[in-house]
Structure formats: C-alpha cells, structure tokens
Amino acid sequence: MSGYDDARTAARALATEAVHAGRDDLARQGLHAPPIDLSTTYPSYDSRAEAARIDAFAATGAEPDGPPVYGRLGNPTVARFETALAKLEGTDAAVAFASGMAALSAVLLVRASMGLRHVVAVRPLYGCSDHLLTAGLLGSEVTWTDPAGIADALRPDTGLVMVETPANPTLAEVDLRAVAHACGSVPLLVDNTFATPVLQRPAEHGARLVLHSATKYLGGHGDVMAGVVACDEELAGRLRQVRFATGGVLHPLAGYLLLRGLATLPVRVRAASESAAELARRLSADPRVARVHYPGIGGAMVAFEVKGDPHEVIAGVRLVTPAVSLGSVDTLIQHPASISHRIVDADDRRGAGVSDRLLRMSVGLEDVDDLWADLDQALGGVSVRAAGRSADEGAAGRPEPAGAH
After folding, report:
1. pLDDT tens-digit profile of 350-392?
2. Enzyme catalytic residues
3. Pseudo-torsion of CA 308, 384, 278, 211, nearest 10°?
4. pTM of the entire structure?
5. d(Cα 323, Cα 389) in Å, to the nearest integer?
C-alpha cells in the first residue's frame, strides 16, 4: 500500500471502516465478497518451516506468517473479522472466540497464568459474567465495588478491573476515563456489548481490553454466536495461545457473518437508537410505568420497571418477541430477574439495581409506532392489583434457565 493509501485509510470515518475494514485486499484479488475458508488443516511440504512458525507462535502468540497451519491456530475468514473489529475499536488487534463467555474466560485464564487471579469488578454485569467471577470457576477471586472504590480495592495480585457500561440490564453508566485512572497499571476490561464502537470506544478512554458478546449487535441478526476481545498486540498474543490450548475457536462461517454484520452496524445502531429514545420518552410519560432506564450515551436498549406484574407484559406482547439476547433487527424483551440475571444471588441482584419489576428491551428496526402500539396493549393487560403484590413472588414461582444474555 502506498503512503497516500496509508494516509487515506487512517483518516477513514467509522461508517466507512465498518464497510471496508477487513476487505481492503479483495478488489486486488478480483473478489467482491469475502471468501469463506472452511478448511481445518492446510498442506505444507516444508516441515522445518512449519516447526519454526509453531515455535514462534508458542513464544509470543503472534499470528503465524505465511499460509495457515491449522484451524485452531487461526482462520483467514475469522482473521478478516478480527482486523475489522480492531479497526472499529481503535486497538492493535482483536481475538475472536466461540462466545462472549469463552472470550471472558480466556482473559481470566491469561491473567491467572501470570499469578494475577484477583479481579475488581463493578456491578451490574451480565449475569453469567457475574457468576463466573463469583463462583471462582476459573480460580479467580473477585472484589465487588462501586467505581469510586476501585483504587482502594486493588491488591498486588489484582490482574483485572472489569466494568460494563452501559450495564446489563440497568443501563447504568460509568466514567471510563475516571475508572481507567483509578486502575493505575492494572488492565481495565470494558464490556462494550451494549454501546458498540458506534457509540463508545473504550480504548480511547484508557481501557486495555474491550469485550463484546459479538452474538449481539456485531452480528445483528440473531443467527451467529461469538465473542471477541479487542486489545493491544501483547495481550492478543496471550489470548491466541489460550484459544489454541482450550479450543474456544470461532467457526469460519460465524466469522463471515460477523464481518457482514459489521458493514451495517452503524446504520442499525443509529436507527434502533432513535426508536429506543422515542420509546423511552413514551414509557417515561406512562402512568403504568414506575421508572425508565435509558443511558445518556443513547443506544438501542431500554429498561423499565412496571407498576404491575412484569410477567403479564411478557405474556402480552405480540409484535415484540419475548426472548433472551439482544441486538437483533427485531425487538426483544425479557425479565432479567427470571432469566439473564437469575443465576446471580437475589440480594446481590437487587443491590445492583436489578429490580424484580424490571424489563429489558432490545429495540430493533420496526416502525416505532408499531412497537409502541404493541407495548401499549401489553401494558394495558397489566393488572393494577399486581402492584400490591411482590413481583418477586411471581419470579420465584417461575424458575427459568440461567445463562442467556
């Protein structure tokens, strides 16, 4: 690439990068759409060179030069997505995994391998992230605190500070620059799933790792499961080594779908955010709604607490889909206390602001008036009598499978 091309690429806007990053070489190859490489292994007649490349990977985790070696070491289609996501987040690199939880697990394993098992975290987090830390399933130990208490919670063996902003499911926000300052030399990991790089680029505010459940907005169509960590090359190398050792690789077809999803990410996020802001406004004015949570940063997520039984709203929607997950082109609604955060201890859940009457809605691309008409009729079915009864009683009687975003 010429110096002119380098300068032109460096100056590209996010919307342009979303379309072209990871695809810059296609035209020179006579291609328009990125190819899908489904190979698990690749021929090589030079075993000495292969040995040298594998030694280099074992030493640093750097992506092997030359042709691919084996699907667990890396895949060309997945690499295109990683390149594109790193561009959008403004980091040196990105490492993709089979799910968001696989990505977080890899980060914890990397830090633990360095003798840094202690994590400082701010609630609320996604329920399974909370559970992974609290249960110590990977040998980690967690100290929960608020943003103001991060500096005091740090220890010599602290390997990570973790926040999610806007947070799942309350949409609470933290000042990333202040949090990064409080971390000192300890890496800050920010779960940027809700905001996406369209609304927020945590690396610009001091975060060293940016986590996405790529299943959500990055894919954007409810048909791919993946996770990704955007970070500097040093940490990326270690994450690749963990991915190779543990096998949490992303399938090439998923990598292709994610790269395709990134192309429309800015358009989707901005359109859905416009509808979400309007729905938040209407819900705020509705006497059947006790409280609305909508982040100052904007976005397509809305959370609201009803005065009646939230389960009646879930049962009453017809256009909106009552389902877990988020970030798809269609609107989804769920009850966090029953599903996404059910696995979190009830007292910890409520202490983090996850009310038993809270509903979380991921706004899609439908017409906003159609969405409001559906919510209006669903809220109309909420019994006033339920306002005097604890919604927690209703939730307790409906055990749901935990672990879904």
Report:
1. 988 899 999 999 999 999 999 999 999 999 976 544 444 444 4
2. 72, 126, 191, 216
3. 0
4. 0.91
5. 25
